Amino acid sequence: MAETDYDVIVMGGGPSGIAAAVAAAREGASTLLIERYGFLGGAGTAMMVNPWMSYWAGGSDQVQLIFGVLQELIDRMTEMGAYGHPKQITAFDPEALKVVAERLCKEAGVTLLYHSFLGAAQMDDSGHYIKSVKVANKSGLVDFSAKMFVDAMGDADLAALAGAKVNKGRSVDGLSQPMTLNFRVANVDVDRMPDRKEITRRYLEAKKRGEIRCPREDVLWFYANQPGVIHFNTTRVILKDATNPWELTEAEIEGRRQVQEFVRF
């Protein structure tokens, strides 16, 4: 029977969860990382949020600020030829990130559990500490206990379920940043692409003609790692709550609708 008690349980396998789990395991703690999808990487792989934000400061005299596990992931993707682009230095291959993140965790001694969704947090008698978490997966409802829990789920789900005070959205109306469905276009002759301003100008004209219904005011795109592939982070789904499963479903549908309009455009 699989182990259900650990020193540390990390909920969420995005970049922060990967770093937390690897660090804990390297310090000798028995560590379990629980992830809802079948792979690591968080938004960078599941939602293809690309490229990574810069991790340095300064102008011409740039100084790198973040190293650690992030740098290890970068180095390993670089070895695979899956990190960076001449015009987009932090672009990465999502499939490569899945592989290197997994290897890093396994080498550190992290136990991975995929396809498991957090359902509840059980508190100790004092009500101040998490005693165990209940997750749903193909085995049904399973309890896992630990001395320490790390909430790396992005939406602070574990903290909220444990009764912690959490803030969501802006104070004036509770709304959060709009959601986006990323997409990519392949076989692009990048040398013939109009510049960003010209693409946006044509996009705004298409909106006036009613060919595109997207509230975004410009077209946001980046170079991907693969030759001739352009990554678009430009759909915009507004007035939806990503912690409400019904509204999140509506957002998925609306995002795909917008993608098809953009592809035709």
TrEMBL record:
SUPFAM superfamilies: FAD/NAD(P)-binding domain (SSF51905). Pfam families: FAD_oxidored. The keyword Oxidoreductase applies. It comes from the Bacteria. Keywords: 4Fe-4S, Iron, Iron-sulfur, Metal-binding, Oxidoreductase. This is FAD-dependent oxidoreductase. It comes from Paenibacillus cisolokensis.
